[in-house]
Design goal:
With 371 residues, the protein is of the alpha/beta class. Helices cover 39% and strands 22% of the residues. Bound molecules: nicotinamide-adenine-dinucleotide (NAD).
Length: 371
Amino acid sequence: MTLRIAVVGCGVIGRLHAEVLAAEQDTAVSVLVDTDAAAAEALARTLDPRPPVTTSLDEALARDDVDAVAICVPSGAHAQIAVAALGAGRHVVVEKPVDVTVEAAAPIAAAAAAAPDGTVVSVISQHRFDPASVVVRDAITAGRFGRVTSAVATVSWWRSQDYYESGAWRGTWKLDGGGALMNQGVHTVDLLLWFLGTPVEVTAHTGLLAHERVEVEDTVAAVVRFESGALATLHATTAAYPGLSVRLQVLGDAGSAVIDDDRLRYFHSKELAAAEAAGDAGVGADRGDRADQTARVLPDGEEADPAHGPMFTGHARQYRDIVEAVRTGRRPGVTLDDALLAVATVEAVYESARTGAPVQVAEVLAGAIRR
Ligand SMILES: NC(=O)c1ccc[n+]([C@@H]2O[C@H](COP(=O)([O-])OP(=O)(O)OC[C@H]3O[C@@H](n4cnc5c(N)ncnc54)[C@H](O)[C@@H]3O)[C@@H](O)[C@H]2O)c1
């Protein structure tokens, strides 16, 4: 089965989707859609085979060679396109964040609920498919870190003033939904929730410290308390020149891990150390109680495809998951509910920063707190 996909939005990320879909074995680009005809034309010229282009979503949805729609337009326009695609009986892949607020994304959930069984809706969160993320999540689920007590998440990036001025939608509440946390940091929020579970309460501060004429924050510092009792600090900034890394430390009472720029930098599990010591007394003794076990837990040959780079590889991995979900009827690796929870957590951060009070994530999710 080849999943034939209409790519809607032919900017920075639409280009990546089209390249991945054209290169992967089980996917194809059936049509490119952009309200800016020149953007769609420019992308079409780079693809082989060259797909048709249109400025009309309706025209794309009327085609009989479109199984799914990939939504790569500015964040605040995701829901309207997803609802139209689901209403036309298509599977849907939505770029992150799913939309700019839980409220704005709610029509997608309603359209998904009304869609025929087997309709797949997945939201891009490509870092869930990084080998480092999978190893850490598996270790947590198997109890290899014992009780996960805390996490430290930081997105320390730099975006220039020119970046915010490169598109009228960037840095606006209406179409970007927020700044450093909603746009750049939502990947890390999603991983944090995937690792630590349900977030309960958020306390946060935000600032616009190194940019001008931007509505949203360029710096966030927050504390998140989870249902399990675990505590996390969450920091995201686009004001850290020249741009450092994205780092996530997951810390438990029987093991810990550090992921930095998508790679596993440290992994230690007491259980693994004990098993190694039992299997080979010399090995355990040599490596010590705090030894880094990274080399032993990562699968071989799973690094980013050197011909394409990490962005391509991440999206390609997620598309393989989506194709499998369509083929087998199983849930995709990233569901709509996962994406709504990430957006609710980011909204809770903004609400806490605005009011100075702690915010319950469940209340944001239930629509009791709206921006
Ligand atoms: N997963 C990731 O790592 C990642 C990276 C970058 C961007 N994104 C997400 O992708 C989305 C797009 O970001 P971008 O940087 O590619 O933006 P962009 O401005 O480069 O491209 C957006 C494109 O959408 C077109 N467009 C706007 N409204 C449209 C509509 N209603 N119908 C059809 N086309 C329309 C524009 O003409 C433009 O060509 C955002 O939601 C962003 O958060 C995700």
